[in-house]
Amino acid sequence: MSEKPYPKALFETLVYNENGEPVEVAYLGGDAHYVIPDDGFNRHVEARFIDRQVMTWLQKQMLSNKDMVTEGVMSMLGKDDLFTKAMIDASIKNIDAMMDEGIPDDARMWLGMMGFKIIVNVHGEVVKIDAPAQELPPD
């Protein structure tokens, strides 16, 4: 049984090769692929492969800072109740659902403006993720 189609690259506009060149997105057979420039060649790597690496990294980051992430999201939403906290905690644990649902274009644009960058090698392996730093609140 084959995997279901993967029609959208989650991190389009946020992926770069090791030389700092932006990576484009192309569609082959209904599946999104990142097109990685490599000295005049274009290497096509399934978007699912790169997106999975980034989502795994994001989930680890969120789980290791779960309380801070939860408090930050609750503050942005202007809610401070147990039900909202439980929903946010469940979302962090089930971040894989984003692989199917995608990331809203506004959120991706915001990430780019904040300096979020994914650096990949010509094989599509993530070699570095530049993420905006979050200052810890003074305790």
Chain-wise SSE layout:
Elements: E1 15-17, E2 24-28, E3 31-38, E4 41-46, H1 47-64, H2 66-77, H3 82-93, H4 97-101, H5 105-113, E5 117-120, E6 126-130
Parallel strand pairs: 1-5
Antiparallel strand pairs: 2-3, 3-4, 5-6
Helix pairs in contact: 2-3
Short description:
With 139 residues, the protein is an alpha+beta fold. The chain is 40% helix and 22% strand.
Could you explain the architecture of this structure?
The protein is an alpha+beta fold. The protein has helices at residues 47-64, 66-77, 82-93, 97-101, 105-113, and strands spanning 15-17, 24-28, 31-38, 41-46, 117-120, 126-130. It has a three-stranded mixed beta sheet with strand order 1-5-6, with helices on one face. A three-stranded antiparallel beta sheet has the order 2-3-4. The radius of gyration is 17 Å and the shape is elongated. Helix content is 40%, strand content 22%. The chain has five helices and six strands.
